[in-house]
Write a structure and sequence with these properties.
Layout (H helix, E strand, L loop, with lengths): L2 E10 L4 E11 L10 E8 L2 E6 L2 E5 L27 H5 L4 E3 L10 H6 L6 E3 L3 E3 L9 E3 H7 L5 E3 L8 E3 L2 E7 L5 H7 L3 E6 L6 E3 L10 H9 L3 E5 L17 H14 L4 E5 L11 H9 L9 E2 L5 E6 L1
Parallel strand pairs: 5-6, 6-7, 7-10, 14-15, 15-16, 16-17
Antiparallel strand pairs: 1-2, 1-18, 3-4, 3-18, 4-5, 8-9, 11-12, 12-13, 13-14
């Protein structure tokens, strides 16, 4: 049963409270189990964030490298193009597990492998991708095996061999479709997935991962099926022009179409747009996306946050 009337408060870590950014997120009826009745999303950089949900805290897609210490993706500048604004020790502290959407270095890098304990619980989709894009066939391996090769001993796939979702206490994690580009570039990128979080008394959250808005309508079908209350959307409009001019994830045009479809599936949905302003191949910026939202025919109905590094979005209900 959906209960309207919740609010979303955005507060910046270390600075003044910004205030309310939206209202009306609905959730399932909350059981009287003593758990916190809010979820929070603490954004660090790119897709790296800490999600507190139903009493569990997960570190999402940790890219912890210092500015300029990773290779360029587009030949413009070394990555990441900005530093973290929060100390790494704080980022990896007080977490119950790590969720890795896919195995590209802007989602799990060497610094993450060095700073996370090898017995930490890691959850990742049952999927695979090339470890070496220059040899995509021979180097293709599962996300789980790539993480285990780094020495991690407690890696669980989000989808079981029987195709069932993973349960963590009262939380259900379901891996869903994603497409990291079309044609040749999509093949080179390998597998990606979105992840849906569900729990009694909590908003349903859909984390898109690095996906475009596919021609087959599978992304929109996820919106229809789950009617998410909160969406964490990767909207960096990444392009590697040396391979193809087409985006590897949603750009401004696709993002607006996606936002409108999300609002049609759930008029109370709140969208958190990230994966911008941190990598040299991400052409969509917070400024360009905000301009596209402002010019959208549905701008008055859309509830979209574009958090800055170090900010926390609190979803209370």
């Amino acid at each position: 049963m959906n209960v309207p009337g919740k609010s979303f408060a955005l507060k910046a870590m270390g600075v003044a409270v910004v205030g309310l950014i939206a209202a009306g997120c609905a959730s399932k009826s909350a059981p009287d189990d003593g758990k916190t009745n809010f979820s929070s999303y603490e954004f660090y950089r790119n897709a790296t964030a800490k999600l507190t949900y139903d009493g569990q805290t997960f570190l999402l897609d940790p890219m912890l490298a210092a500015k300029g210490t990773l290779p360029s993706f587009a030949g413009k500048a070394p990555n990441p193009t900005i530093n973290l604004t929060v100390d790494i020790k704080q980022i990896v502290a007080d977490i119950d597990g790590v969720i890795v959407s896919h195995m590209h270095t802007d989602h799990f890098d060497g610094a993450a492998a060095q700073n996370l304990p090898k017995d930490i619980k890691i959850y990742t989709p049952r999927n695979s991708a090339p470890e070496n894009p220059a040899d995509p066939v021979k180097s293709n391996s599962s996300f789980q095996s790539q993480l285990e090769a780094m020495g991690f001993r407690n890696v669980t796939t989000i989808e079981s061999e029987a195709g069932q979702p993973t349960r963590i206490d009262g939380i259900t994690l379901t891996q869903v479709f994603g497409q990291h580009g079309a044609g040749l570039v999509g093949d080179l990128m390998g597998g990606v997935n979105g992840i849906v979080f569900e729990a009694e008394g909590q908003p349903t959250i859909y984390w898109t991962g690095d996906t475009i808005l596919d021609d087959g309508g599978q992304i929109k079908a996820i919106l229809t099926r789950y009617s998410p209350d909160v969406i964490i959307a990767h909207t960096g409009g990444a392009v590697v022009e040396a391979i193809a001019p087409d985006p590897l994830m949603m750009n401004e045009q696709q993002a607006i179409e996606f936002f409108e479809a999300a609002e049609a599936a759930n008029p109370d949905v709140h969208i958190v747009a990230v994966h911008m302003d941190a990598l040299d191949h991400c052409l969509t910026t917070r400024a360009s996306l905000q301009l596209a939202i402002d010019h959208s025919a549905a701008s008055s109905k859309l509830k979209v946050s574009l958090p800055l590094e170090g900010q926390t979005i609190l979803f209370s209900h």
